[in-house]
Amino acid sequence: MTTLAAAAPLCPASAQPCTCFRPFERSCSASAAEQAKRSPGWLGDRIPRALSLFGHDVETVEVLRVAVVAVSAALVWFGLTRTVAGVDLVGAAGLLFGAWPILREAFENIKERRMTMELSMSIAILAAAAISEFFTALVVTFFVLVAEELEHLTVDRGRAAIADLIDVMPHEATVRRDGVIAVVPLDTIVIGDHVLVAPGENIPVDGVVKSGLSYVDQARITGESMPIKRSEGDTVFAGSINQSGALDIQVDRIGRDTSFGRIIDAIENAEQSRAPVQRLADQLAGYLVYFSFAAAILTYWLTGNIRDTISVIIVAGACGVAAGTPLAVLGGIGRAARNGAIIKGGMHLEALGKIDTIVLDKTGTLTFGEPRVTAIHPAAGRAEADLLRLAASAELRSEHPLAKAIVAEARARDLVVPEPNSFDYTLGRGVTAVIGSDRILIGSVKLLQADGVTVPADRDGNGVSSEICVAVNGTYAGAFAVADEVRPEAANAIRALHAMGIKTLLLTGDNAKVAESVGASLGIGAVEAGMLPEQKLERVRALVASGAKVAMLGDGINDAPALTAASVGIAMGSGTDVAKESADIVLLANDLDRLVETIAIARRTRGVIWQNFTGTIAVDALGIALAAFGFLNPLFAAFIHVSSELIFISNSARLLPAADRMKSSRRGTRAEPAESMQTKILG
């Protein structure tokens, strides 16, 4: 067995091989504190560059900064300091060291002509120091420094959602090439390789099972709570956990191209793709700073009280909105990803939260997109299982989709399907086969009637499903109803959408009879059948032009134009690559209940953001009024500023998905030798 070592990329902090790099990452994502923690310490490594406090990495210099400010404030309060020319030396030194990062950021904002909360707090701190209120300046600085670390702690929870996802991936995988089994780095695997996955390991690639039988936990990818049985011919996803048996998987997709990689992309891009509401949050923050300055100038002009003026500047804060809005967007996209829905950016999450109309495709969206046996009607005296066994045997060599549906139904019931002795296909009619001593006719009514078989008129047909009749030795034996089966969760999903106030419209290229039957059974608001792709596109464009907020849900190439024209395009995970690339959201789970849950997440995210907006404006307006009339001193104003900021950030943090600790106990290790696995796979 051969083991190859993976070359880690260089860390941006040290230009040395990065120890915090994870599979699927394009670069080191470690925060400044994480990078400092991995760097050599001071004084011969006696003092670490970062400390762990409450499970959160904090740079040692930041802890020291908070401590110096706190001690300086205590010394000033108890009068244990020395004053020279009216300047408290300890207070001034502690303030300079503690407030330095705040002042530096404010200076950068001035150069960029940006009005920010750091700038307003810097002015308040300097104003307090200018009138020798060093205790006030130090306490305000202390509050700001502590608030920033608490904000970092909350935001790190969002990054932990990415880290927990990435951490489930092994750095290496066992592959078989030319009969030789080797453990190789994940980034050396290519499409077509055979990856061997032992029980308890995480599956590192998207692919097809070539041999083996196991139950696979796909909860991280599709949101399905129960393990799924996987055997030869079944598809598996990277990030799933192989629970019971050994699997030999032929690689179809690797790295960022896997379903798992796309989930990570969606969460990472959430921090970079700015939703319109995030721009509004930044504008609101700037306006509140301008408003607080105007109120401070007015307060000083009317009262001449510098302490009240400083209180007005300090109390106003929009950091909760400015930091909480992107955190809410990240949380919403992360929660949707854990639920099996990839949202490709914050703007699409926001648009999804506003929709009032959803346009639905039928085939492959409301239905499974492939014919299935929906009913079996055996003739009197004929057992259902026997009829299915004979029909599947007769159709075994046929390539017709309806024939494949019957064979698939027999195999799903674990029936033994023998090879026919002879097989003859009549175009447009059906199949004649001999199985042992039985002569089987299976196909249309015309096929049976042409052979002299009497076919009863009352065969329980519904006019919507395709009917396949069977005769055995010249006698009518029964019939099958085969149709593109409606997804079992579709009716509940449509009801849930209506309960949310969302209108539903079915646009399909199928015939009117089938479309109306499906629409009526699901309770869809309106149905339009026989539509070509360009007609779907024009219909969606007309809805958008009328002012409706439209989501389009589809899966095929013919749906791609309409997906791009809608306010939000949503593709099923089983759909074509064209549809998934055209869509703004992809439902990996192929489950319409996930669609409803994703819309609910988007609406909840939007609600949290507007709660923060409303709360910030109310708190700032009340705080400025109280400070202007002398009811708030600078210390209490700083407390209100910081506490309201943390409340609104914590409100956004409620959307973050819980950290996923369900990591395989065997991740990154091999539970058994490769030779043993080879025996399991081949045996």
Describe the structure.
- It is a single chain.
- It contains 24 helices and 27 strands.
- With 683 residues, it is an alpha+beta fold.
- A seven-stranded mixed sheet has the order 1-7-6-8-14-9-12, covered by helices on one side. The chain has a seven-stranded mixed sheet with strand order 15-27-26-25-16-23-24, with helices on both faces.
Summarize this, please?
The chain is α+β, with helices and mostly antiparallel strands.
Write the topology of this structure.
Elements lengths: L1 E2 L28 H6 L4 H4 L4 E4 L2 E4 H18 L5 E2 L2 E2 H23 L5 H14 L3 H34 L4 E6 L2 E6 L8 E4 L8 E7 L1 E4 L1 H4 L5 E3 L4 E2 L4 E2 L4 E7 L5 H12 L5 H28 L2 H10 L3 H20 L2 E3 L2 H7 L4 E4 L1 H5 E12 L5 H12 L5 H12 L9 E5 L3 E6 L2 E6 L1 H6 L15 E7 L2 E12 L3 H10 L3 E5 L4 H11 L3 E3 L4 H13 L4 E5 L5 H6 L2 E5 L4 H6 L2 E3 L4 H37 L5 H20 L20 H9 L1
Parallel strand pairs: 1-7, 16-23, 16-25, 23-24, 25-26, 26-27
Antiparallel strand pairs: 2-3, 4-5, 6-7, 6-8, 8-14, 9-12, 9-14, 10-11, 10-13, 15-27, 17-22, 18-19, 19-20, 20-21, 21-22
